[in-house]
Fold these 4 entries.
Entry 1:
Amino acid sequence: MDSILVTGNGPLNGQIEIAGAKNACLTLMPATLLTEEPLTLTNAPRLSDIRTMTTLLQSLGAEVSSLQEGKVIAMSSHDIHNHTAEYDIVRKMRASILVLGPMLARDGHAIVSLPGGCAIGARPVDLHLKALEALGAEMELKDGYVHAKAPKGHLQGGVVDFPIVSVGATENVLMAATLAKGTTVINNAAREPEIVDLADCLRRMGAQISGDGTSTITVEGVDRLNGATHPVVTDRIELGTYMLAPAVCGGEVELLGGRLDLVGAFVEKLDQAGVAVEETAGGLLVKRRNDRVNAVDVTTEPFPGFPTDLQAQIMALLCTADGTSVLEEKIFENRFMHAPELIRMGAQIDVSGGTATVTGVDRLKGAPVMATDLRASVSLILAGLAAEGETTVSRVYHLDRGYEQVVRKLSGVGAKIERIQGE
Ligand code: UD1
């Protein structure tokens, strides 16, 4: 298995280009199932999760080709001959559940294995199923598979009241509602930029959607959707991650394609920590105001709050802050698996339930560490950049799921980082 070797670094300077959002692309791809006409995505990221979604869609009968070295994904679902998403593919990635709504809306039936994905706590799909039930779907769980049916062959518009905000469940029911008969109202909908991007793409395909980006989304069902070409929104999590590189190492890095509206709550925390973020013609410029950052408290929340997907990375920064920071994880249980690894590097962290208390130390020390999930893996790389000596991060297949060309991007701004090929 490959690993990544990082050597503690001086200041970083230069530019990093931010890719299209993994999480947006993973929900835009299943939207192909809603139409027999071609759907093309541009600005796609090149990641193993995208290849997994490609394999899943192909297993259902969709044609999916990767063009321009993976930056363009051309899809056509004129012949969907299989309505079962098999365990062997679905277990690799939780976002696989997103084929359920579209298949059900299109053909009135679907069978999808219960998903796997990152090991960050119990992550059920009950909200997806309940939301689709509100549109008239009948669900049965058998042998680890969800068997879903629309009794009259089509879904019926309805009112969906989410008890908690779920990004994936909002996306699933939003796609399904575009082809349901009548009006659907989604209350307590997720407001993430990836939801707005999906709604934009669906509108290009002829869907009638309003209110995306707010907590109430309304969808007027249409009889059919057409093909479209859609650019994937910038990856705000990749953006936030690389904004932390000059924050941990010093220097000045411009994030090309970066937008403040995608990372508002995160930038607020960086500002409190003493990291300046400026808008430029091409994106965002980031530099640390002083040699050492200040401690800050962080609570993760649904958008527009601080994203759970940047919690591990900001923890890496706060390990060497001046003072004590309290990080509260409110979205996922068990999402502090990076803490014991950071402690191996000399960090002082106490985890109690959903709270991590981080007392800043002067300097971290390089150590062999293990990536435990996607975001944890990149936080260990950031910590390695800040540490004295060498850090080897193993199990980097987690990283390949969500970060394209991390070694090229970071070494392009002067980081000492290389990938070591395993057996
Ligand atoms: C998406 C993102 C993920 C991010 C998360 C929260 C993708 C592919 N993944 O995941 O990177 O960390 O949003 O911003 O876009 N829940 C239930 N029942 C359900 C669904 C969710 O209880 O049916 C719970 C989850 O366990 C979690 C919370 O709801 O505690 C929010 O999860 P959700 O927003 O659904 O996350 P995902 O869509 O899986």
Note: Residues 23, 26, 94-95, 123-128, 164, 166-169, 308-309, 331-332 surround uridine-diphosphate-N-acetylglucosamine (CB under 6 Å).
Entry 2:
Amino acid sequence: MKVNKKHYRSIWMEKTTVCMIDQNCLPFEFKIHYCKNSDETCTAIKNMTVRGAGSIGAAGAYAMLQEIYSAKDNELYSHLQKAKIKIDATRPTAVNLFYATERVLEASKISEDFAIKEAIAVADECAEHGRLIGIYGNELIEDGYRIETHCNAGWLALVDYGSALAPIYAAYDSGKNIFVYVDETRPRFQGARLTAWELKNHGIPHTIISDNAGAFLMSKNLVDMMIVGADRIASNGDTANKIGTLEKAIAAKYYGIPFYVAAPSSTFDLNTKTGGEIIIEYRSEDEITNITGLHNDKKINSFITSPGSSALNPAFDITPASLITGFITEKGVITDNEILKLFEK
Ligand code: MRU
């Protein structure tokens, strides 16, 4: 996607350095963060300098690539086995990370060259899958649609194009008149900070709503469809996504509003049978008790809750397949019953 007329991906490699748009600085500052080795790339995943399932997957693959470049021992496979454990420990929920590291590890059984190619292919495929998700998802969007989305599943989260936002970009670029309701997405505000920044950058009409406003807007017939991304989809279609997604899906079902999950096949985890098996990440309570913003053009971090009270911060929830109208993938739009068939092809 373009920023100031220049094309960027959310993450890329320059020689042995992993380069990424610093998502913790947006929307106040557009800054590139550089990771010289896999430890630095792991830290960037952990502290969410790079975030979003697809971008985390690309970061994991690039961290494996940095390990290949720096490996001193002759036994590449065992070296990468150890590296994979370190990289996988950064964040537990998005399956794209484990998919990516496993893919590079498996490739190393064949040759070092093949492992390098696979590590690079993870990001390229993620971008291409986002483009195709856009094309298929656009077919579901009618002229005049008002679409609600949660969190950030745009190009920042998926290397390029995005998952939930890819159909929105495609619809807008094909001349449809659309409007987007952006859930702010507490506690880290990925919607208010990142999705809004992406949409503004692309010129797409939108407004930010508080996380509590979705059901109200739905009850007033102001939302025609909801599209969200995913961090892991179990083989029965239960979907882990940013905390708050489940509430939106329940409200959408109640008001008869189509609720779509957009995700590339690397987000489907056939080894996980149901959502109950998915590990949910709990993050620091600071993300709830404090917020970062601008004051007189200066970035400040403020304490905003009652001192002495603790805060509980599950970062994801599971939406049961029964609440999901369909899955927009790079191979087409499918229902939960068609997930296994998707992988047979
Ligand atoms: O914790 P994050 O910001 O890495 O969360 C992941 C997400 O961005 C969302 O859950 C998103 O909707 C799916 S990722 C394409």
Note: Residues 51-54, 151-153, 157-158, 163, 190, 228-231, 241-242, 315 surround MRU (CB under 6 Å).
Entry 3:
Amino acid sequence: MTSTTASDRVNGVAADADRDRAAYRPAIHYTAERNWLNDPNGLVHYKGLYHLFYQYNPDGNVWGNMSWGHASSPDLATWTEHPLAIAGDVYEDIFSGSIVADLENTSGFGSTLTPPLVAIYTSAFTELSAFAGLQAQSLAYSLDDGFTWTKHEGNPVLNRESAEFRDPKVFRFNGPSEAYWVMVAVEAQDHLVVLYKSANLKDWTYLSSFGPANANDGEWECPDLFPLPLDGRTDQLKWVLIVSVNPGGVAGGSGGQYFVGTFDGTTFTSENTISEDGQALSLREYSWLDWGRDYYAAVSFSDVPGAKRIMIAWMNNWDYANDIPTSPWKSAMSLPRHVTLATIEGEPRLVQEAVEPTDRLVSASYAIGRKTIDRGTELLPDEAWGQVLKIDAELRPGTADEIGLVVRGGQDEGTFIGYNSFSRCLVVNRVKSGYVDFHHSFASVETAPVELIDGALRLRIYVDRSSVEVFAQGGIITITDQIFPKPSSCEVALYAHNGTGSVESLVIHNLESADPNAI
Ligand code: FRU
């Protein structure tokens, strides 16, 4: 990897800026064709399609004019973008929320023959509205399976006279004696998740609240609450509460924490809260969905066949989201992740596996067995290189302080993904990952505690044109980071610092050789 000075790099990037901005468009992650997006909203599987709605600016490439964009997919891999679903107007911005399939027409918006999809979203009211300055929950419905939407005339349906009450996630709760809708939403600045119930999605009754707990430095946003069998046992059902926090995430800025416990139809009780005042402990003690900088506002799909729980996050961070060097689009979604709950070191923990980009599956371009990694950096042959890769590696640190892989390597740049024996951490180092100077806080090193299993670390890494998503030890720990390398930086190398280690096996799939227009 040849050497250039920092100013060469900046100038080089400036000269190549337009080409690079377009070249950063991911191959295996969803982006809107044009313009800004943030949180995934209204994730629902309905009549064979996965619907992905999202916070969207129809008029620009920075945050603003919040409305719901829309895409759908038959397989979570190939997405089709649709016209704007729910538009903001002079009275309200359409903030985050969820969608339910109201199959029994409890809302009365449709009929049992034509059940409505109902969106429950936050109206962020403007100065021109009678509710100026408030955030309250509103409804819109669709009678054509999610493609066109009508706002409910009686909006808002739930108003706490609060300026920070938002991000409703609604699900059907089947209790022993009755079934009803449950909403989880946040009072963002109070670090509270508030729960309500309803028979018809229009009239809501307060149930309980949860919080503050664990990470409380920033605002609480985008909650989600769902059941998962522990260790695959349906007689051992636990409830998982997701709470995004911004700033104050474990890697800095935006992050997502989770709680595991019980939900009795009224109250969520956490079994893994460590701190109720947020003061006592390091952020690293808490349970995080992802230890990277770019995995925020994660929420799950409703009604996935087989009761699977699949989550998608916004692959960005409010610290620098508006400044990332992409155009004419800004921000991608994470890969969809299948999440399960397993007992690990005595604790129930989320285990995450990316849903394979099935449209891209190709035979391995490079595969090796056991190989020593000598001190230094060893470039792999060019069959291993690429902009869009799926990498499976098993590493043994041996005597090295740190060993791992370099991806998207090129002229004095590369993203280092490895294991540090001193800190016993998975490491993603994007300090020299390419264009990092667009924001002072972008260059960073992420670390996440992970135990070796039989002396080895198993990694699955998805490399894309502007991101890496790393799943360690079968998805017990993940790190998701954006990167902005030169398009020509495609090298893959092995590295070992201060000693030697080994790679037990390494298999690389180049996902770019499939149809580049598929996503
Ligand atoms: C989270 C968030 C939500 C809000 C939306 C506005 O990223 O701040 O709390 O509803 O974005 O776009």
Note: DSSP finds two helices and 34 strands in the chain.
Entry 4:
Amino acid sequence: MRQTITVLGASGSIGQSTLDVVRRHPNRYQVFALSAARSIERMLEDIREFQPRYAVMADAGAAVQLSELLGDSSATEVLAGCDSLAMVASHHDVDMVMAAIVGAAGLLPTIAAAEAGKRVLLANKESLVMAGPLFMEAVRRGGATLLPIDSEHNAIFQSLPAHYNGELRKNGIRKILLTASGGPFRGKTLSELANVTPEQAVAHPNWSMGRKISVDSATLMNKGLELIEACFLFNCQPSDIQVVVHPQSVIHSMVQYCEGSVIAQLGQPDMRTPIAYGMAWPERIEAGVASLDLFEISRLEFCPPDHETFPCLALAGQAFAAGGSMPTVLNAANEIAVDAFLQEQIAFNQIPTLIRDVMGMHVVTDIESIDHVIEADRWARDCASQWISRSVA
Ligand code: NAD
Ligand code: MG
């Protein structure tokens, strides 16, 4: 029997890589549902190719247009909105869910998949950052299998003992070594970054990704979000994790053991590797990724992160330490800041300033329900938007 997959964020960078892996294994996987915000043309093509039962557009107008273009004879039912996303993520007939919506919009459908006990392929790190304890609890309660798709966390997962139970020390683990490429601005000073443009920021040296995560990579907030992501996924503290800048992006992360061994996962900077790993785990399948040529790479370099030029990494550590609603606030303020930078409303170096100010104004509250998460997220978005209005005025 073929396994069924719902791809949330199908039109994006991770979504398209996921469909490429599916395409290579027609006897193994079948698309149950595809979703996108509003990319009608892309969805139309993918629906024709993969013939899903459902297509969900976040935007209601886009759903109407897509439905008209597909015509009455289409076997795919077009739906719209957040509830429909949760429905296709938790449907009885779905085996696995690729969570690849960008940002906080991914939270509710991803949690729905976890509660329904699906194999959750987690690319949408923001949902774990903003609601970590609740998310992990939903995974436990639902009996879901959570597999990290973020390349670093996938590498850590592969380097941990096969039945890692969340206890670092008892498993003989001394440290997790989280690698970072350093992004397009590695080696620059704060003043050199004063006038960088969105186009310069999204031009990542090694990876081709969506615009939001590309800016996060340039500010190093991506590594900050990943630090928090790793703490929740592997049940550890920021002090158990060392961020290692490794410009070649060949080693995707490592685990250091107490007797001195370091286990690493290496590969091309191609997300189809962690995607295929997550889809087939514990088996391995072809992903269309070329073998690594170590002679061509010839050298691997490592250095510590530059906290002065890239304050976002430390801000994330502080948010995790503060706990409660603070990681939610960090994530929301970052989303607003990145969006404003991409729209050229604020400068690159104002991204960390904005986030720091919003965090400074926040009174931490306990997070006991998703409603609390949504409330903290909304508070931080409002606060960040006001900050931008003041700075533009
Ligand atoms: P992208 O911008 O290329 O794609 C985002 C997808 O989400 C699109 O399909 C878009 O239509 C959909 N979307 C956007 N807003 C939405 C909304 N409000 N409601 C519903 N759907 C919406 O992003 P990406 O690079 O594919 O990244 C997706 C996620 O994966 C992010 O959380 C990112 O951090 C994570 N991730 C990406 C990479 C990568 O290499 N691209 C690597 C690791 C982790
Ligand atoms: Mg990553």
Note: Residues 323-392 form a domain with the Rna Polymerase Sigma Factor; Chain: A fold (CATH 1.10.1740.10).
